[in-house]
Amino acid sequence: MLRGKIIKPLGSDGLEFHPAHYDGHLRSLDSGRIRALTQKRLSQVFNQARKIPFWSERLKDISPEISPLKQLAQVPLLSKGDLLAEQAKYPPYGRLFSTTENGLSRYTQTSGTSGQTLRWLDDGASWRAMLECWAMCFELAGVHSSDRLFFPFSFGPFLGFWTAFEAATRMGILSIPGGGLSSEARLRMAFEVDATVLLGTPSYLIHLGEMRQNHGSKVPSPRLLIVAGEPGGSIPATRKRLETMWEARVIDHAGMTEVGPTMVECTEGPGGLHLLESMYLPEILDPQSGQVADHGELVLTNLRRLSGPVIRYRTGDLVAKDPVPCPCGFGGLKLKGGILGRIDDMVFIRGNNFHPQTLEAILFELSGLSEYRAIIHRSGDLAKLEVLVEPLQGIDPSGLVDAADSAIRARCLFRAEVRAVEVGSLLRAELKARRHRVEG
Ligand SMILES: [Zn+2]
Hints:
The chain is α/β, with parallel strands linked by helices. The protein folds into two domains: about 1-340, Rossmann fold; about 345-440, GMP Synthetase, Chain A, domain 3 (2-Layer Sandwich), CATH 3.30.300. Helix content is about 30%, strand content about 25%. The protein has eleven helices and 20 strands. The chain has helices at about 30-50, 55-60, 70-75, 80-90, 125-140, 160-170, 185-190, 200-215, 235-245, 355-365, 395-410, and strands spanning about 105-110, 120-125, 150, 175, 195-200, 225, 250-255, 260-265, 270-275, 280-285, 295-300, 315-320, 335, 340, 345-350, 350-355, 370-380, 380-390, 415-420, 435-440. Strand 15 (about 345-350) and strand 16 form a beta hairpin. The radius of gyration is 22 Å and the shape is globular. The N and C termini lie far apart (about 50 Å). The chain binds zinc ion (ZN).
């Protein structure tokens, strides 16, 4: 069970929050309490949404007299394309945000790695709700008030870790920014400030971890790596690689700019993600039938970010419900194996359904691999997969190509064209590595 309050609740500085507003009394968040909170908060979401033009149009045929859950069932699913179309029609922000009461003071945007950029705005209350999400994440992740958090990247306009950083500072946890520096300088700084927790994308922390190994560093490791932004944190081969190279525990986290920080792994039930169900109402829908299922696309309704509500938002993430209660005692939905893949990424290659994410699971098991890229070539009905592998320093490239070739053939049941590239030639991204590309 959770050990109770290991960190101060948000707002204990008396500046921003009343502790009673904080859901972080995690042991009391059993399924019954979550259901009660959900009903109350969903009703607030509908009240607020009806004041926002985009939503008042979308909800105009749904009676506000029926229960919030019955209203929810009648709301059409919302896609990122719907939000982008609204912003294209009413630039630059669309009619998606509250224009009354509190000012919209925070700007973030999606990274645009998969096309158009979505712009998002928040008022103070919505922003603080996301800080509360992070407070819950830190508690589930086992972060202590004595920890020193190091953020080895620039935050840019992306929601990413802005909210994590701010939540931690308000909770009285030392939070150290590491943006605007070279990777070497960041690595040095992480040790100079004696960081106990590193936060970042799995691929960037792998890059830093390799540099640390190449430098033959004997300095102490951080004890926790909190990773987000890519699926790697829930891919066993990637986790193992990170945990081995840093001698630290990996905690996976996931979120979306337009929804918020939504999920985290706990210390007592590794290999799965807890959805913060008092903050986000989840549905899992079969992608074909649209019916409720235990395995399918995750659809979320934001319950606390009232300045820009999203109701029944299609996340595009494939997930599976874990039927076994987590030993930590935290109530609500737990996703087995984290995010299993992206619905849009699935391609059909030589008679097989193929999720590019499986490549990460296969290739990061190869001990000689440093980084890779996959290019899916589509021509007519036939697709083929090209894979570029970058060896670690001192590793024979042809041996790595053979190992990658046979591992892909054994697990995917088709052949890929595998080629080796020079050490250090594949770009390392600080935020969201895109290892897979579709051409044709
Ligand atoms: Zn748990």
